[in-house]
Design goal:
The protein has a 6-stranded mixed beta sheet. The chain is built from 4 helices and 6 strands. The chain has 146 residues and is an alpha+beta fold. Helix content is 32%, strand content 45%. It has one domain: Nuclear Transport Factor 2, Chain: A (Roll). It starts with a helix and ends in a 9-residue tail after the last helix.
Length: 146
């Protein structure tokens, strides 16, 4: 069991690095070939290959906002059994628009990860907020942008 906890910690560290660097291939490796994705708009099955397109788009969006860094602020872990864990996370996104004042946005997400011979893989991902709406509400994104 202790190994599982360490695997989860390593998994989240890699996820955080990949989110900041925009490593699409490495991020895709952290997801099952097909996973369930849910957000305020509903739920859908997503092939992990779709992330190869989405991750560079997200990176460009963040670059358009100014430099940003995403940090894992908290994680609440619930072991479901020897193969599955539920991870409730909060991510702190800091955006520096060059004005000397950093904007901070907290985004909540929940993962269900599966432990297999290939390591941990996300099989379910829930984004609790509509990311684009949060950016608009904070004035970080124009209302007519994507």
């Amino acid at each position: 069991m202790e190994n599982f906890d360490r695997e989860i910690e390593d998994f989240l560290k890699r996820y955080e690095v990949n989110a900041n660097v925009g490593r699409a291939e490495e991020t895709v490796e952290q997801f099952a070939d097909v996973f369930m994705m849910a957000d305020p708009g509903g739920v859908r099955a997503v092939p992990s290959s779709a992330l190869l397109v989405a991750i560079p788009q997200r990176k460009r969006l963040f670059e358009s906002l100014g430099s940003s860094i995403t940090t894992l602020a908290s994680v609440e872990q619930t072991r479901l059994d020897d193969r599955y864990a539920l991870l409730k996370t909060q991510w702190l996104v800091q955006v520096d628009r060059g004005s000397g004042r950093k904007e901070e946005v907290i985004l909540r997400s929940t993962f269900v990860v599966h432990r297999s011979d290939d390591g941990l893989k996300v099989v379910f991902y829930l984004s609790h907020e509509d990311f684009m709406s949060v950016l608009r509400e904070r004035g970080l994104l124009l209302s007519d942008t994507a």
